[in-house]
Write a structure and sequence with these properties.
- This protein is α/β, with parallel strands linked by helices and 352 residues long.
- It is built from eleven helices and twelve strands.
- The strands form two sheets. It has a ten-stranded mixed sheet with strand order 2-1-3-12-11-4-5-10-8-9, sandwiched between helices.
- The protein is globular and about 55 Å long.
- The structure holds 3-isopropylmalic acid (IPM) and manganese (II) ion.
- Manganese (II) ion (MN) binds next to helix 8.
């Protein structure tokens, strides 16, 4: 019996999460695994009501579960940073989810802005470090608000943090068994402390994975290849900030935020899965947002729990719906409502 914590969150989060849970239910009926869900109301509305971003027990609470399913965090009436840092980053850090796994996969029938590229070309995975780098909050400000203001935001890279991320990426490239190639995305020509550490750790660990081809690209070059030759990539490993940036680019090449999913993974603990698109407040309650990203996040959740049959089936169901049903991935342009898209995926799973 899996215990799944459900955090619908803000904006359209709860709507898309509902569709993911619909698909989960269909998969459990079909394949016989059992689960229960516990819902938490953490998010912008609760914060505005109570002044608290997360209850102090949040992480301990979530650790009692096998996985966390998250809709979206971000509220138009809350100053940027408060919920992002207070909820999303607090959970990633608090649960030590040191991997942010982001597949960049173009499903059949989905339009990509990349000319002459198709599903065979756009199919790679970014392993983003998720607990260090520029995201730790290290640094500070002096003489704030004066003409002499100084702002320092430091990138923290620990040997342990970097190495465990790289190791995960090598393991992932091995398990994925596509091109058996792992590209380190860095900036060794300028960030000569941080990415020197990354580079040394990368090639040291590479010695233990002789079946995986190690490859290196600077982050700026990576963005060029992601547009020009996405087929070059199999698995990319990178730091937190670069990973954040390049996965939004990747998401656009796979059809946009309506379809891009990600997992915040603690391989030894509790992981959290989310559509990476945000809360899209202007579409809240309209039943127009694309739930496929959230359904993809559920697919990753089940894969991580070891329910690979269910994960494979949901992947096929998504491909069926994109390939034969949806007109577009964009909110309001799918030709179907949010709930109808969820129904179609669930139906495919049930009928399989
Ligand atoms: C993401 C988001 C977050 C990040 C924000 C909301 C803190 O952009 O999941 O990529 O920067 O990691
Ligand atoms: Mn981001």
């Amino acid at each position: 019996m899996y215990k799944i914590a459900v955090l619908g969150g803000d904006g359209t989060g709860p709507e898309v999460v509902r569709e993911g849970l619909k698909v989960l239910e269909a998969a459990s009926h079909k394949l016989g695994f059992k689960y229960e869900t516990v819902e938490y109301d953490w998010g912008g509305d609760r914060y505005l009501r109570t002044g608290e971003v997360l209850p102090p027990s949040a992480c301990e609470e979530l650790k009692k579960h096998d996985a966390v399913y998250l809709g979206a965090i971000g509220h138009p009436d809350v100053k940027p940073g408060i919920l992002e840092k207070g909820i999303l980053l607090a959970l990633r850090f608090g649960l030590d989810q040191y991997i942010n796994l982001r597949p960049v996969k173009l499903y059949p029938g989905v339009e990509t802005p990349l000319k002459d590229k198709g599903p065979a070309d756009i199919d790679y995975v970014v392993v983003r470090e998720n607990t260090e780098g520029l995201y730790t909050g290290a640094g500070g400000v002096l003489k704030k608000g004066t003409p002499d203001e100084v702002a320092v935001q430091e990138s923290i890279n620990t040997r342990k943090g970097v190495e465990r991320c790289i190791r995960y990426a090598f393991e992932y490239a091995r398990k994925r068994a596509k091109d058996k190639k792992l590209t380190l995305c860095g900036k060794t020509n300028v960030l000569t402390y941080a990415f020197d550490l990354w580079e040394r750790a990368f090639y040291e660990v590479a010695n233990e994975y002789t079946d995986i081809k190690p490859d290196y690209a600077h982050v700026d070059a990576t963005t060029m290849w992601m547009v020009k030759n996405p087929e070059w990539f199999d698995v990319i490993v990178t730091d937190n900030m670069f990973g954040d940036i390049i996965t939004d680019l990747g998401a656009m090449t796979q059809g946009g935020m309506g379809i891009a999913a990600g997992g915040n993974i603690n391989p030894e603990g509790v992981s959290m899965f989310e559509p990476i698109g945000g809360s899209a407040p202007k579409y809240t309650g309209m039943n127009v947002i694309n739930p496929l990203a959230a359904i993809g996040a559920m697919q990753m959740l089940l894969d991580t729990l070891g329910e690979t049959k269910a994960a494979d089936l949901i992947d096929k169901a998504i491909a069926h719906v994109t390939g034969t049903k949806l007109k577009s991935m964009g909110a309001g342009r799918m030709g179907f409502s949010t709930t109808e898209v969820g129904d179609m995926v669930a139906q495919f799973v049930a009928d399989a």
